[in-house]
Specification:
Elements (H helix, E strand, L loop, with lengths): L2 H10 L4 H49 L5 H16 L5
């Protein structure tokens, strides 16, 4: 919490211990909530990153095994067919 906010709490609490307690308590709760949100977001990023890496590894494994084809061989196949039908296109 910023220094200015601390001073505001202290001024508001002058002569009223109960008010000071509640303001301190709510400030603490707000800080804890902020920390929880930051931790949650960082965990989300880590999980997203791990999932992305797993998907990438799985795709590469399937490509190597031949279960799925990457785009390049298919493009090459289409190009060879086109060249067979139309010639190289050179003069």
């Amino acid at each position: 919490m910023r220094e200015r906010d601390r001073r505001v709490f202290a001024v508001r609490a002058t002569g009223d211990g109960e008010k000071f307690f509640f303001l301190s308590f709510f400030r603490l709760v707000a800080e804890m909530a902020e920390i929880c949100v930051l931790r949650w977001r960082s965990c989300e990023l880590v999980v997203r990153n791990v999932r992305s890496q797993q998907q990438c590894a799985q795709t590469q494994t399937l490509e190597r095994a031949g279960s799925i084809r990457s785009g390049a061989p298919e493009r090459n196949r289409r190009r060879r067919r086109w060249v067979r039908r139309n010639g190289t296109g050179a003069c």
